[in-house]
Amino acid sequence: QVQLVESGGGLVQAGGSLRLSCATSGRAFTSYAMGWFRQAPGKAREFVAAISWSGGSTAYADSVKGRFTISRDNAKNTYLRMDSLKPEDTAVYYCAAAESRSIVVRMYEYGYWGQGTQVTVSS
Question: CA-CA distances (angstroms) from residue 10 to 29, 82, 92?
Answer without folding.
Answer: 26, 12, 10
